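Full entry
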Amino acid sequence: MVENGESSYFPPHTWGESVTAKELRETLRRLGLSQTEFARLLTYYSGERVSPNTVWRWASGHRRVPSGIVMAVKLFEALPKSKQRRIRREAADHAGE
């Protein structure tokens, strides 16, 4: 939920910055997104392939979580649940699932 422009998942000090692997994992869990599903969403909306291995590297701390990913998660979480479900279905359909 977003109130006063502040994300309930990522603290305001992280806006425009990278977040920790733990923060990414916790956020994906709260949103009900697997790492594979998150990779699929990013691929669908960015037009560039994001592999589940890349998301795993971010979530395990092997790679820094890019600031653009933080913004993508914030935009997704700000959507109504019905819109989130529709986007998830579209991404899954696009991936052939």
Remarks:
- The longest strand covers residues 2-3.
- Strands lie at 2-3, 6-7.
- Residues 1-7 have pLDDT under 50 and may be disordered.
